[in-house]
Design brief:
The complex is a heterodimer.
Chain A: H1 7-34, H2 39-47, H3 50-54, H4 63-74, H5 78-84, H6 91-99, H7 108-116, E1 121-126, E2 137-144, H8 147-156, E3 163-168, E4 172-176, E5 181-186, E6 196-202, E7 209-212, H9 214-249, E8 251-252, E9 255-256, H10 261-287, H11 295-323, H12 326-329, H13 335-344, H14 351-363
Parallel strand pairs in A: 1-3
Antiparallel strand pairs in A: 2-6, 3-4, 4-7, 5-6, 8-9
Chain B: H1 7-34, H2 43-50, H3 53-56, H4 64-69, H5 78-98, H6 106-112, H7 115-123, E1 134-137, E2 153-157, E3 160-171, E4 178-184, E5 194-200, E6 206-211, E7 222-233, H8 240-245, H9 250-287, H10 293-324, H11 330-355, H12 366-376, H13 383-395
Parallel strand pairs in B: 1-4
Antiparallel strand pairs in B: 2-3, 3-7, 4-5, 6-7
Helix pairs in contact in B: 1-5, 5-9, 5-10, 6-9, 9-10, 9-11, 9-12, 10-11, 11-12, 11-13
The chains are: A alpha+beta, B alpha+beta.
Flavin-adenine dinucleotide sits between chains B (104, 136-139, 144-146, 169-171, 214, 217, 222, 375, 378-379, 381-382, 384-385, 388) and A (250, 252-253, 257, 260, 262-263, 322-323, 325-327, 329).
C-alpha cells in the first residue's frame, strides 16, 4: 500500500493550484458580475494541459491526475472549469466516443488540440431519472456556457465537430448529431461566472449514435461523478481554509472565532469529512486504472465517493459561510459562492438519486477491495 | 394542549396568503433578478399601508383604555405573528421583511419605551395614508454576536445625546422613519453602558455608507450607516433615564429580550421558505416525475421533509405561545432559531435533489430559496449563539 501521489501528478497539482489562485479565482469574481469568462482565461485553462494529463493513453483515462487537478482548480471557479476545463467531467464520454468511433467523433489527437485551444464544447445529460428511453426529442436543462459561445462553436462546426452532446442512460451512451441541437436560453444561476445554457435537441433516432452497454454507461457516469466529487472536496476545503484564516483574526467573546471549542470542533469535523471524501475519491480514481479490479467495484466506489463528497462539501461550505457571520452572507467574501456551488454541483449528471440507484443495483455483489 | 388555530388567526393568514400570491412572490422574484430592493415608493406599499397592515403588526389587542391613556399593555399576538411570518415567507421572505411597519424596531420599543415614546413612535403606523418603516441597529463592523463589543458612543450634551459610530447590516434602515440604535454611554462598562436611542429620519450626521450586496433576500435593503456626531433629543433615549436606573444592565437586557420575540419569528420565516420548496418538489413528484425506481426515493424524501417541517414549526409556535403567556421563553426561542434554519436548508437541498438539474435554473426558484434561507441562520443571532444559549440552559451554566 502506498498513499503517495506520483511526482508528475503532484507537480501538475501544484501547477493547477497556482493557476486557480492567481488567475481563475481573481478573475472569477469579476466574471460573476459580467457573467462571462475572459477568452484569455479560457485559453489559459485549455493550455494548462488538463487533457494531456488525463488522456495519457488512448484507451485509458488518468482519473487520479484529473481528480487532483480538479480539486485545486475548483477552488478558483467551478463554473469556468465546467465550461472550459476540458475534458472535465466529460473525459469518460469523450474517451468512449473515440474508442468506439461514436458518430463523427474526431480522433483523440484532434480532441486534445480542440480542448487546448478552447474550441470544443461538450455537454452531458443523464436520462435514467427523467426519461425512460433514449430521448430523440428532449432537453438538457442546464449546461455550462452561454448562447453566443455556443453559436461560435456551431459556426466552427463546419470545419469539424466542436460541439458534442452526450446522453447517458442506464445501459446506453448516445451522441446527438450536432446539427440537431439548439441552445435555447441563457441561464444565470449558481455558476454565475460561467453562465449556463439550456439545450434542446430533436433528432431522428436513426441519426443518434448509440452504444448499448451498461458497463460503458456506468463508466461515463463514474468519471463524471469523480470529477464532481473532486471539485466538491476542493470547494469545501477552500471554504474551510478561508473561514480559518478569517476566524483567526476575528474576535468574539474575547477569543478568536476559531479558538472557540465549538467552532474548532466543527472545523475538525468538516476537515475530517473532507479528508474521508478525498481519500474515497482518490482511491476510486486510482482503482479505475487497476486491471485487477473489477470495473463494478470502482464504479461503486466512485458513486460512494461522490455521495460522501456531497455531504462533506455541503457541511463544509455551510460552516465556512456561517463562521464569517453576517459577513459571510455578503458577496464581499467568496464563502457565499462556494456555498452556492456546493449545492448546485451535485445536481448535475443525474444527481444523488441516480448514484444511489446505481449503488442499489450493484450492492448485493459488492466486494470491498480492501477486505481480504 | 390545544393546537387549533383560532378563526381570527386563520383569517389573518388567509389575508397574507392573498397578498403573498399577488404581490410578495412576484415582487420578491423581481428584486432578486434585478439585485435591488423593492423601491420605497412602489404602489404596493401604499396598498399595504391603506389596508391597516402596519397597525396590525403592532398587535390588535389595543384596548380602549390603552388608546386613551397610552398605558402599556401586554401584547398577546406572537402566535399569530409566527403564522403570519411563515405564510409571508412562503411567498417571499425578502418582500415580507420589506413590508412597512416597525419591523425589528418594534420589539425594543414595545419592551423599553415609556408610554409617551411608545405612542409617538407607534402612532405613525396607525395612519393608513403613507407607508412607514422602522429599523434596528445593533451590529457594528467589529461587533455582531458579541454585542458587548459595540463601540458606538453616546455623549450627553445640551439636553440630549450625541451619537458617534458605525452600524452595519441594519435592515430597512435607509427608508426607516426611526431606528433603534444601541450605543454605549461608557465603553469601560461593557454591557452596563448600553443604551437604546431613537434616531429619526433626517437627523444631521446620519449617513448611509453602503447598501450591502447580499447573496439572497434582496427585496429589502440591508445597510451600513455612520452616525457622525448625530444629536438626538433626550426624549429619544428609549425608556428614559429612569429605565436604566433599575439596573445598569437594563439596556443590554432590553436588547436580549427583543430576541426572545424575534428569534421564533425569524425561525418561522425559515419554515415558510422551506415549505414552499417542499411544495415545489411535491407538485413535481405528483405531476411530472416519471414512474421509475427513483420516484420512490423522491417520495421518501418528501415524507422526511414533511416531518422536519412539522418539528420546526412546533418549536416556533411553542416559543411564541410562551411569550404570549408571559412565560420565560429565551431557551425555547433559541431552540427554534437553532433548529429551523439548519433543517430548513436541508429541506430545500432535498427539494433540489428531487427536482434535479432543473433546480439550477432561476425559474424553478429553488436556488433562490436556498440562498434566502441561509440568512436565517445568521440574523438575530447565529447558529452558534443559539447553541450557546440552549447549552447554557440545559447544563445550567453560562458558556463563554
Ligand atoms: C441579511 C442580514 C440582515 C441583518 N439585519 C440586521 C439588522 O437589521 N440589525 C442588526 O443590528 N443586525 C443585522 N444583521 C447582522 C446580524 O445580526 C449579525 O451578522 C450576526 O449577529 C452575526 O454577527 P457578525 O456578522 O458580526 O458575526 P460575528 O459575531 O463576527 O461571528 C463570527 C462567527 O463567530 C461565531 N461565534 C460568535 N460567538 C461565538 C461563541 N461564543 N462561540 C462560538 N462561536 C461564536 C458566530 O456564530 C459566527 O459564526 C443582519 C445580518 C444579515 C446577514
Amino acid at each position: 500500500m502506498d498513499f503517495t501521489i506520483p511526482q508528475e501528478i503532484e507537480d501538475f497539482r501544484i501547477l493547477c493550484q497556482s493557476f486557480a489562485k492567481d488567475k481563475l479565482f481573481k478573475e472569477m469574481r469579476e466574471g460573476e458580475k459580467n457573467r462571462s469568462l475572459s477568452q484569455q482565461l479560457a485559453t489559459g485553462l485549455g493550455e494548462l494541459g488538463l487533457s494531456d494529463a488525463v488522456f495519457q493513453k488512448t484507451d485509458t483515462v488518468s482519473l487520479l491526475a484529473l481528480s487532483l487537478a480538479v480539486e485545486e482548480l475548483a477552488k478558483g471557479d467551478v463554473g469556468g472549469l465546467l465550461r472550459n476545463g476540458l475534458p472535465g467531467p466529460y473525459a469518460g464520454a469523450i474517451s468512449l466516443a473515440t474508442r468506439h468511433n461514436l458518430g463523427d467523433t474526431p480522433d483523440l489527437e484532434e480532441i486534445l488540440l480542440l480542448c487546448q485551444s478552447n474550441r470544443l464544447s461538450v455537454h452531458l445529460a443523464t436520462c435514467e431519472s427523467l426519461y425512460p428511453d433514449i430521448p430523440s426529442n428532449a432537453r438538457l436543462a442546464w449546461s455550462p456556457g452561454n448562447i453566443e459561445d455556443f453559436h461560435n462553436y456551431e459556426r466552427q462546426n463546419e470545419k469539424g465537430t466542436h460541439v458534442m452532446v452526450f446522453i447517458v442512460g442506464r445501459d446506453f451512451v448516445s451522441l446527438i448529431p450536432t446539427d440537431s441541437v439548439v441552445a435555447t436560453s441563457s441561464l444565470p444561476g449558481a455558476f454565475e461566472a460561467s453562465g449556463g445554457i439550456s439545450l434542446d435537441w430533436s433528432a431522428d433516432p436513426e441519426r443518434i449514435s448509440t452504444l448499448h452497454s451498461s458497463k460503458e454507461a456506468l463508466f461515463v457516469k463514474s468519471v463524471a461523478r469523480l470529477w464532481v466529487s473532486s471539485a466538491l472536496v476542493g470547494l469545501g476545503q477552500a471554504s474551510v481554509d478561508y473561514a480559518i484564516e478569517y476566524g483567526k483574526s476575528r474576535v468574539v467573546f474575547d477569543l478568536p472565532v476559531v479558538s472557540h471549542q465549538a467552532n474548532a470542533f466543527d472545523l475538525a469535523e468538516a476537515s475530517t469529512r473532507l479528508q474521508g471524501a478525498r481519500l474515497m475519491t482518490r482511491m476510486a480514481a486510482s482503482l479505475s486504472q487497476d486491471e485487477d479490479v473489477k470495473s463494478s467495484t470502482w464504479f461503486m466506489m466512485a458513486a460512494q465517493a461522490y455521495l460522501e463528497s456531497v455531504e462533506a462539501a455541503q457541511f463544509a461550505t455551510g460552516l465556512g459561510l456561517l463562521l464569517l457571520g453576517g459577513h459571510g452572507y455578503m458577496r464581499d467574501h467568496p464563502v457565499e459562492k462556494w456555498f452556492r456551488e456546493a449545492s448546485a454541483l451535485p445536481l448535475l449528471f443525474g444527481g444523488q438519486d441516480s448514484a444511489l440507484a446505481d449503488l442499489d443495483v450493484l450492492a448485493c455483489d459488492y466486494i470491498d477491495p480492501l477486505v481480504i | 394542549m390545544d393546537i387549533h388555530i383560532s378563526p381570527e388567526d386563520t383569517k389573518t393568514v388567509e389575508l397574507v396568503r392573498e397578498m403573498g400570491k399577488e404581490y410578495l412572490r412576484p415582487l420578491g422574484i423581481e428584486a432578486d433578478r434585478l439585485q435591488r430592493a423593492i423601491p420605497e415608493d412602489h404602489p404596493f406599499y401604499k396598498l399595504v399601508a391603506s389596508s391597516g397592515y402596519m397597525e396590525r403588526t403592532l398587535g390588535t389587542e389595543q384596548t380602549d383604555s390603552e388608546k386613551k391613556s397610552v398605558s402599556k399593555t401586554r401584547r398577546t399576538h406572537w402566535v399569530r405573528n409566527i403564522l403570519v411570518a411563515e405564510e409571508g415567507s412562503y411567498w417571499d421572505r425578502g418582500a415580507m421583511v420589506s413590508l412597512p411597519g416597525p419591523g425589528l424596531g418594534g420589539p425594543p420599543v414595545d419592551r423599553m419605551a415609556t408610554p409617551s415614546q411608545r405612542e409617538r413612535l407607534f402612532s405613525i403606523f396607525r395612519q393608513r395614508e403613507v407607508p412607514k418603516w422602522a429599523a434596528f441597529a445593533m451590529t457594528e463592523p467589529d461587533a455582531g454576536s458579541d454585542v458587548k463589543r459595540i463601540a458606538t458612543t453616546a455623549r450627553k450634551e445640551d439636553g440630549g445625546w450625541v451619537l458617534k459610530g458605525q452600524k452595519m447590516y441594519s435592515s430597512n434602515s435607509p427608508r426607516a422613519d426611526w431606528i433603534v440604535v444601541f450605543a454605549s454611554v461608557d465603553l469601560s462598562k461593557g454591557r452596563d453602558g448600553h443604551r437604546a436611542f431613537i434616531v429619526e429620519k433626517g437627523t444631521p450626521g446620519f449617513e448611509i455608507l453602503k447598501i450591502e450586496h447580499k447573496m439572497g433576500i434582496r427585496a429589502y435593503e440591508t445597510a451600513t450607516f455612520a452616525l457622525n456626531d448625530c444629536y438626538v433629543d433626550s426624549s429619544n433615549l428609549l425608556g428614559g433615564e429612569e429605565y436604566y436606573k433599575k439596573d445598569a444592565n437594563e439596556g443590554f437586557k432590553g436588547a436580549m429580550a427583543t430576541f426572545s420575540a424575534t428569534r421564533p419569528l425569524v425561525a418561522a420565516m425559515g419554515v415558510g421558505i422551506a415549505r414552499f420548496a417542499h411544495d415545489i418538489a411535491r407538485d413535481f413528484v405528483k405531476s411530472e416525475y416519471p414512474h421509475t425506481p427513483l420516484r420512490d426515493k423522491a417520495i421518501s424524501r418528501l415524507a422526511w421533509m414533511q416531518q422536519k417541517l412539522a418539528v420546526a414549526r412546533m418549536l416556533c409556535l411553542q416559543a411564541a405561545w410562551r411569550l404570549d403567556q408571559g412565560m420565560p421563553n429565551a431557551t425555547e426561542a433559541s431552540m427554534a432559531k437553532m433548529y429551523a434554519p439548519m433543517i430548513c436548508l436541508k429541506i430545500i437541498q432535498q427539494a433540489r435533489v428531487i427536482k434535479g438539474e432543473d433546480s439550477l435554473l432561476v425559474d424553478t426558484l429553488l436556488e433562490k430559496l436556498e440562498r434566502d434561507v441561509k440568512a436565517i441562520d445568521i440574523v438575530e443571532g447565529t447558529q452558534q449563539i443559539q447553541r450557546r444559549i440552549v447549552a447554557g440552559n440545559v447544563i445550567g451554566r453560562d458558556l463563554r
